[in-house]
């Protein structure tokens, strides 16, 4: 049983389309230039999951990042152990972009 999901907003990716604030205004606000800010700590209860997932999926620049689900522990307290998956290390063998410039 999930206590909700966790998201994060990468403001460096945001291009100010405002779709997130349209779908989930309780979780995203727009500044004077139209760029999004996350309201709260990124914890989304189950009742708001659909609206926030719609915002995440409709973001044209993928600035909203899915961090996983909150799962209750045996003692009933939600643990904050959700972490973003690490980026895979680039393969350096046979990778022209890393080893040298090739035209």
TrEMBL record:
Cofactors (names): [3Fe-4S] cluster
Basic and acidic residues: bias regions: 70-94
Cite the residue spans of the region called Disordered: 70-103
Quick check: keyword Metal-binding in the entry? yes
Its lineage reads: Bacteria, Bacillati, Actinomycetota, Actinomycetes, Mycobacteriales
Any idea which GO molecular function terms this record carries? 3 iron, 4 sulfur cluster binding; metal ion binding
Write out the entry's keywords from A to Z: 3Fe-4S, Electron transport, Iron, Iron-sulfur, Metal-binding, Transport
Note the superkingdom of the native organism: Bacteria
Signal peptide segment: none
Q: What is the protein's name according to its record?
A: Ferredoxin
Q: Which organism is it from?
A: Mycolicibacterium moriokaense
Q: Name one Pfam family in it.
A: Fer4_15
Which residues are in coiled coils? none
The answer, when asked if Iron is one of the entry's keywords, is yes
């Amino acid at each position: 049983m999930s206590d909700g999901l966790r998201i994060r907003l990468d403001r460096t990716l945001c291009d100010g389309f405002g779709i997130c604030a349209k779908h989930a205004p309780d979780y995203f606000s727009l500044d004077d230039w139209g760029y999004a800010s996350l309201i709260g700590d990124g914890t989304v209860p189950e009742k708001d999951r659909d609206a926030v997932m719609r915002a995440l999926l409709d973001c044209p620049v993928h600035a909203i990042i899915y961090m996983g689900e909150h799962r209750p522990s045996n003692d009933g307290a939600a643990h904050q152990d959700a972490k973003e998956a690490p980026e895979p290390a680039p393969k350096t063998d046979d990778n022209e972009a890393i080893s040298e410039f090739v035209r």
